[in-house]
Amino acid sequence: MKRFLLSIIIFLPLMLNAQKYACVNTEYILSNIPDYASAQSKLDKQSAAWQKEIEDKFQEIDKLYKTFQQEAYLLPENLKRKREDELKAKEAEARELQTKYFGPGGELDKKRAELMKPIQDRVYNAIERIAKEKGYAFILDKSGSATLLYVSAKYDVSDQVLDLLGYKAGARKSDADSGQEGGNATRRKEVGNPEMRNPSKR
């Protein structure tokens, strides 16, 4: 891994000099799209509801277990085993529900794909269109990148992506040291690209 990162650091300047390139900040772009904030809010609410459902089940199991501990010494062995099996079954059921909601490929992942993927696809399509129209060989994403050490602001086409999507970035203050941008966006009445005006539902 270290050798791979070192090779990128060594050869990236040569690649950049040989090709026309640009960069975007996808975190900045998404933060300027109100639909994305709305989708994130819906996802957070759904996640909180599922989390509460699971916590309620485990609290119920905890109460049943404490009651069982208090009564266990009075129960005959066969009834004691039956109660233990019931508690284990309830706990297994709660863990299955937890996996169903929050496990890999679970309901949360499906909900995230349902809400976020259409927006992310629109952003990707806008980036791809700009790359083709401007003749960029590649476009780097500088948000959270460990290999992109510096990029001049003049190569950042994030605002062009927002413009193509029909959003206008609000007032923002650039930070030359950190390369971070921020701001709010307002939806324009007219969108330049008809495909972005009515993205296909997925």
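^ that was protein a. below is b, sequence first then the tokens
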Amino acid sequence: MKKMLLLALASLLLLLTGCAFGLKQPPKTIRQAFDSQFPGASHVEWERVMSTYKAEFYHDGHEKEAQFDKDGTWRRTKTELSFLDIPAPVMKAAQEYCDWEIDDILLFEQADGVPAYYQIEYDREHSDREKQLLLFPDGSVFTRL
């Protein structure tokens, strides 16, 4: 009886492991679209999110996240940046917004017609509060959150 139970558990574990690995690999059309848009990307990890596929990876010295539709159409890319990577007008506007410490700088590029924008995230020492500022590349404010 114990052998049957162990065999059943082992089979279930193998099945679940196989399914997990299968879900991590996107269809060929998505992989081809990704390789075309991000040649040389490394440490690529895939995840299926609803009807889209999300890749987390390194490309051109940055950590990135890209989403593709099930037909391989690119939807958006989020890139983590440093202070050295952002245009001077964005840095100036970000520093003038508030005196909190800048915690993260993200660049969002989208296929739906929204122009590229920067998301600046601020933290305050000894506080759980955060602020966000969305800026266009020319430093104009997209929105404050």
